[in-house]
Amino acid sequence: MSDSKPEKRQNWEEGAPERLYVLTSGRSAPAEPAPLDMVTLIVTRNRPTSSMQPEQATILRICDYPLSVAEISAYVHVPISVVTVLLAELLGSGHVEARAPIPAASLPDVELLEAVMHGLQNL
Protein backbone atom coordinates (compact mmCIF):
# COMPACT_ATOMS: atom_id res chain seq x y z
CA MET A 1 0.00 0.00 0.00
CA SER A 2 1.49 3.32 -1.01
CA ASP A 3 1.69 6.35 1.22
CA SER A 4 -0.79 9.07 0.27
CA LYS A 5 1.00 11.84 2.18
CA PRO A 6 2.17 14.72 -0.01
CA GLU A 7 5.91 14.90 -0.49
CA LYS A 8 7.65 17.58 1.51
CA ARG A 9 10.33 19.56 -0.20
CA GLN A 10 13.59 18.83 1.57
CA ASN A 11 15.22 22.09 0.51
CA TRP A 12 13.71 25.19 -0.94
CA GLU A 13 14.40 25.57 -4.59
CA GLU A 14 16.79 28.40 -5.28
CA GLY A 15 14.23 30.64 -7.00
CA ALA A 16 11.12 29.44 -5.17
CA PRO A 17 8.70 32.25 -4.30
CA GLU A 18 8.63 31.25 -0.61
CA ARG A 19 12.39 31.66 -0.29
CA LEU A 20 12.36 35.06 -2.00
CA TYR A 21 9.46 36.17 0.22
CA VAL A 22 11.42 35.23 3.33
CA LEU A 23 14.61 36.93 2.10
CA THR A 24 12.82 40.26 1.68
CA SER A 25 10.52 39.88 4.70
CA GLY A 26 7.59 40.11 2.34
CA ARG A 27 8.68 43.37 0.74
CA SER A 28 8.53 43.71 -3.02
CA ALA A 29 10.33 47.06 -3.06
CA PRO A 30 12.70 48.91 -0.72
CA ALA A 31 11.06 50.79 2.16
CA GLU A 32 12.83 53.97 1.06
CA PRO A 33 13.61 54.55 -2.59
CA ALA A 34 17.27 53.80 -3.24
CA PRO A 35 19.21 55.13 -6.24
CA LEU A 36 19.93 51.66 -7.58
CA ASP A 37 19.84 50.31 -11.09
CA MET A 38 21.55 47.34 -12.71
CA VAL A 39 24.86 49.15 -13.29
CA THR A 40 25.15 50.92 -9.93
CA LEU A 41 28.40 49.89 -8.28
CA ILE A 42 28.30 48.61 -4.71
CA VAL A 43 31.26 48.62 -2.30
CA THR A 44 31.42 47.24 1.23
CA ARG A 45 32.02 49.73 4.05
CA ASN A 46 31.61 47.39 7.05
CA ARG A 47 32.05 43.70 7.79
CA PRO A 48 29.04 41.37 8.14
CA THR A 49 27.48 40.87 11.55
CA SER A 50 26.18 37.61 13.00
CA SER A 51 22.57 38.85 12.91
CA MET A 52 22.52 39.36 9.13
CA GLN A 53 20.84 37.11 6.63
CA PRO A 54 23.32 34.86 4.82
CA GLU A 55 22.66 36.61 1.50
CA GLN A 56 23.41 40.02 2.97
CA ALA A 57 26.60 38.70 4.58
CA THR A 58 27.61 37.21 1.22
CA ILE A 59 27.01 40.55 -0.49
CA LEU A 60 29.30 42.26 2.02
CA ARG A 61 32.00 39.64 1.51
CA ILE A 62 32.03 39.81 -2.29
CA CYS A 63 31.87 43.60 -2.56
CA ASP A 64 35.39 44.35 -1.33
CA TYR A 65 35.90 45.78 -4.81
CA PRO A 66 33.08 47.49 -6.75
CA LEU A 67 30.47 45.17 -8.25
CA SER A 68 27.35 46.14 -10.15
CA VAL A 69 23.90 45.20 -8.88
CA ALA A 70 23.58 42.80 -11.83
CA GLU A 71 26.86 41.07 -10.93
CA ILE A 72 25.81 40.74 -7.30
CA SER A 73 22.53 39.18 -8.41
CA ALA A 74 24.43 36.64 -10.51
CA TYR A 75 26.91 35.75 -7.75
CA VAL A 76 24.26 35.40 -5.03
CA HIS A 77 21.81 33.56 -7.35
CA VAL A 78 18.93 35.86 -6.41
CA PRO A 79 16.77 37.98 -8.76
CA ILE A 80 17.72 41.64 -9.14
CA SER A 81 14.44 42.76 -7.55
CA VAL A 82 15.33 40.88 -4.35
CA VAL A 83 18.96 42.06 -4.42
CA THR A 84 17.69 45.64 -4.69
CA VAL A 85 15.62 45.21 -1.52
CA LEU A 86 18.58 43.65 0.33
CA LEU A 87 20.97 46.37 -0.89
CA ALA A 88 18.57 49.16 0.11
CA GLU A 89 18.58 47.75 3.63
CA LEU A 90 22.40 47.55 3.64
CA LEU A 91 22.62 51.11 2.27
CA GLY A 92 20.33 52.37 5.01
CA SER A 93 22.42 50.74 7.71
CA GLY A 94 25.67 52.08 6.23
CA HIS A 95 27.15 48.66 5.45
CA VAL A 96 27.57 49.40 1.74
CA GLU A 97 28.10 52.42 -0.46
CA ALA A 98 26.52 52.91 -3.87
CA ARG A 99 28.53 54.58 -6.60
CA ALA A 100 27.43 55.65 -10.04
CA PRO A 101 29.34 53.85 -12.77
CA ILE A 102 32.12 55.75 -14.50
CA PRO A 103 30.66 57.23 -17.67
CA ALA A 104 32.16 56.12 -20.94
CA ALA A 105 34.41 58.65 -22.60
CA SER A 106 32.69 60.57 -25.35
CA LEU A 107 33.92 60.01 -28.86
CA PRO A 108 36.27 62.72 -30.14
CA ASP A 109 35.21 65.03 -32.91
CA VAL A 110 35.81 63.48 -36.35
CA GLU A 111 37.02 66.80 -37.78
CA LEU A 112 39.60 67.09 -35.01
CA LEU A 113 40.88 63.57 -35.72
CA GLU A 114 41.18 64.35 -39.43
CA ALA A 115 43.08 67.58 -38.69
CA VAL A 116 45.50 65.72 -36.41
CA MET A 117 45.98 62.99 -39.02
CA HIS A 118 46.72 65.54 -41.77
CA GLY A 119 49.09 67.40 -39.47
CA LEU A 120 51.01 64.21 -38.73
CA GLN A 121 51.20 63.33 -42.41
CA ASN A 122 52.68 66.76 -43.19
CA LEU A 123 55.54 66.25 -40.72
UniProtKB/TrEMBL annotation:
Q: Which superkingdom does the taxonomy of this entry point to?
A: Bacteria
Pfam families in UniProt:
DUF742
- Which InterPro entries does the record match to this protein? DUF742 (IPR007995)
Q: What is this protein called?
A: DUF742 domain-containing protein
Which organism's genome codes for this protein? Streptomyces chattanoogensis
